[in-house]
Design a protein that fits this description.
Layout: H1 7-21, H2 27-30, H3 40-66, H4 71-96, H5 100-126, H6 133-158, H7 170-191, H8 222-225, H9 229-250, H10 252-259, H11 267-295, H12 297-321, H13 324-353, H14 358-365, H15 369-388, H16 393-416, H17 424-429
């Protein structure tokens, strides 16, 4: 048997793979020059398609792992799909002028490929860290989360925005990105593997006791998981908090300019401030992951809700006072809270339902992004309706932010009702 590498190496390659798999969520940046070819309204359907395809890819990946298909095969299929997705979108989309190739390529193939790789990395690399499930989930998902920010900046700095300033044609950029995804995900596929049965997590340092906060309560198959109240309570909690994060992300620029009108005079400063949400989203994934390991799921879920409520209050204060400082702190705390949501889903899924069925259970848990995306559209529709009804933009945003704070309060109450399962051993002792 091939000798195992230090588990930190698997973590590093896992982050690299997710850094490229996460590019499918950079559509808002990738699509900017494409608005000169197709309407923004038509292009927004790509993000909806990519989210659906990503979820389907995760489900397929889980089923493939359950059937014993080699992880390398699954990841290489994902790499090929991402290459095909970017190439199809760029070359055929440009050659034919048909947006259908964008939908099928970037949305369909790209989303499927990312979902396949995402599921393998979280389940395989996570298995090397049974003692630090929250932290490793946060580290891996940090790569996935900051991907759109880092790669988006690189893309935006080099692509031809069709504004007369020159640059690399968008379809060539797409092809280059697809090749990069294929190379790095394939390299990751050749390195990453699950630990063997002989693997034992390192013992804590002398004088430190390992807290039993991440050891799974029991192994629960998907068919049983979806019948449990603690699954649905977590699913609802995650849906609500994802809506809260999406609402501020999607409305980040107009909220910022409504709060501090002078930001309209500096596009770079505005972009930097809104970008704080993405930066601290990555940091929040690690911080709340570590909190999950130290304090457990309930404290973590409540902490995220409190962080969201505080952030909404700070942004409202920024709108009432015109304070740039309140706005910056509000966006930082929003990013931290939003980052904690995805990490908590991953760590909670392992904690409550075990590692044995994790690859099949996690894709079900992350389906929250589908109802959350519709919830976010509802939030945006409410804001537009209020403004269309005569309310000032500032007033409309304040109402929306108050609503977001209210649903986060509801999410916090829901977290209080999530109970530990009664295991078979405990039933026998009762």
């Amino acid at each position: 048997m091939k000798k195992a590498l230090p588990r930190s190496v698997y973590a590093i390659f896992g982050v690299i793979v997710l850094l490229f798999a996460g590019l499918v969520y950079a559509w808002s940046t990738f699509s900017k020059p494409l608005t000169n070819i197709w309407t923004p309204g038509a292009l927004t359907w790509t993000s909806t398609i990519v989210m659906c395809a990503f979820c389907i890819g995760g489900l397929i990946s889980g089923r493939m792992q359950k059937r014993g298909i080699n992880l390398k095969v699954i990841m290489i299929i994902g790499a090929v799909l991402m290459l095909a997705g970017f190439a199809l979108s760029g070359l055929l989309g440009n050659a034919t002028g048909s947006i259908l190739f964008i939908f099928i390529g970037f949305g369909g193939f790209g989303g499927l490929g990312a979902g396949l790789a995402y599921n393998v990395i979280l389940s395989a690399v996570g298995a090397w860290f049974p003692d630090k499930q929250g932290l490793i989930s946060g580290i891996l998902l940090m790569g996935f989360g900051i991907s759109s920010f880092l790669m988006g900046l690189l893309y935006a700095a080099n692509v031809d925005q069709m504004d007369g300033k020159g640059g690399i044609p968008w379809y060539i950029c797409f092809l280059a990105i697809g090749i990069g995804c294929f190379i790095f995900i394939t390299i990751g596929a050749l390195v990453v593997r699950r630990p063997g049965p002989e693997f034992v997590a390192p013992e804590p340092k002398p004088g430190k006791k390992r807290k039993n906060t991440t050891e799974p309560y029991e192994d629960v198959p998907t068919t049983s998981m979806v019948k449990r109240a603690n699954f649905w309570l977590m699913f609802i909690w995650a849906t609500i908090t994802t809506v809260a994060g999406f609402a501020v992300v999607f409305l980040g620029t107009p909220i910022a300019t409504a709060a501090v009108p002078t930001l309209n005079n500096s596009a770079s400063l505005l972009a930097m401030i809104v970008g704080l949400i993405s930066i601290f989203n990555g940091i929040g994934r690690i911080l709340f992951g570590a909190l999950f390991d130290k304090a457990g799921y309930k404290v973590t879920l409540l902490g995220i809700c409190i962080c969201f409520i505080v952030s909404m209050g700070l942004i409202i204060l920024a709108m009432l006072t015109g304070s740039l400082i309140f706005l910056i702190i509000g966006y930082v705390t929003t990013g931290l809270a939003f980052g904690g949501v995805t990490t908590s889903q991953s760590a909670y899924c392992n904690k409550m339902f075990g590692a044995k069925y994790y690859a099949q259970n996690l894709p079900i848990m992350i389906l929250v992004i589908l109802p959350a995306s519709f919830g976010t559209k509802l939030v945006q529709a409410v804001q537009s309706s209020l403004e269309g009804g005569g309310m000032s933009p500032t007033g409309a945003y304040i109402v929306v932010l108050c609503g977001v704070a209210a649903i986060c309060l509801i999410a916090g109450i829901i977290a209080l009702f999530i109970k530990k399962p009664v295991t078979a051993e405990q039933k026998e002792q009762a």
